[in-house]
Amino acid sequence: MCLGVPGRIIEIRGQTATVDFWGVRRETRLDVIDEPVEPGDYILNHVGFAIRRIPPGEIDETLALYELLLKEADGDMMAADVRGEITGAPRDRAPAKESSDA
Length: 102
Fold this sequence. Notes:
alpha+beta; 2 helices; 5 strands; 23% helix
């Protein structure tokens, strides 16, 4: 099974974004994403490509689901897929959320 991993866009340069995945920053391509994105947006990454912008109203629920998956499913193949996407990332920290207080 293939699984996407959520992350927060830090910076965009052309069709490449620097994305934070639980404290690990990786380059992600923006060629196939479903709608325009900007720094601070959350995306779903699959094999180095942003495939979906996560709507702001779904971010907390999405991150909570992945945190639960990583915490509870040790040894599970799906959890291994997620860990493989964010290799080296601490498991107890979600991507930092931008404050909406401006």
